[in-house]
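Students often ask why we bother encoding 3D structure as a string. The short answer is that it lets us treat folding as translation between two languages. Here is a chain of 339 residues written in the first language.
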Amino acid sequence: MPERPRAVFAMTAENVPRVFPPEVLSRLRDAVDVDPALVVERAEDFTDPRVRPVLAGAEVLITGWGCPRIDAAVLDAAPALRAILHSAGSVKGFVTPAVWERDITVSTAADANAVPVAEYTLAMILLAGKDVLGLRDRLRAERDHYPGWGLVPGIGNHGRRVGVIGASRIGRRVIDLLRPFDLRVSLTDPYVDEAGAAALGVPLLPLDDLLRTSDIVTVHAPDTPETHRLLGRRELALMPDGAVLINTARGALVDHDALTGELRAGRLCAILDVTDPEPLPADSPLLDLPNAFVTPHLAGSQGNELARLGLAVTQEAERLAAGTPLAHALDRAVLEHTA
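And here it is in the second language, the structure alphabet:
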């Protein structure tokens, strides 16, 4: 048997057993030599006497939420490092230019984390189309009156227009999940051309046109300088009366003051899993407005879904140990305009 590559965990220690439950950890340790009791949580841990000799021979860093920045000093202490396998989505918070300069391969479990976000989005689109939340509140208020017994005008998902902002991993998965339903789906993304949209099976629209023609708009663009406040007062005003905005991307993409104004006017509804700031201040009107449904950033992997992230990393570790190409290696150039 070839010798297993040596690996070190770099993440919040309490998340190791959550992301790598026993059956996943056992499989990971068959692929790489890693000690789950030795976890780097803080930058100073890289110089810990227990960690330094292990880091010196490590070929792999298994990272996750809470990973310290991996800069030139860390890489100097890990001269054998050849891969970073990240058990979450974005690596922008800890991967520095020094990593790319030394040609270290970086892989991410973002595809695995996209699954529950897309599932959440699908559920919210279908619930929004039936105005489930609004009619629930009406039932609570009226108690003994069921409005229409299925004859409620203006609701339903037959032919509902859904606009997807961003052909990210999640955006693409959402489009795929929407295929079985009688919905009209369109896309806007400055990095996708007509041929790319055709391959996804949806029309490509400029942002303004998508906003004007969508009953439900779901946001899946990355948080970059170009997308900051992508949906401001002007853009939100383009959405039709009664339209629904769903945001599972990043709160900074939406101007919350402008959105609050539209919600107070009763013109729009919003389903927000991400906000800016996060969490919202206790006195934020978004927490009380009846047409705002705010969840605490839970669309991504939670509970038993975390094991999917660990499994994705384990599969990458197996590929690395076998000398085969990684399935989810990142391209630095592409990373600049993704999450």
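Translate back mentally: Residues 99 and 118 are 30 Å apart (CA to CA). Keep this in mind for the problem set.
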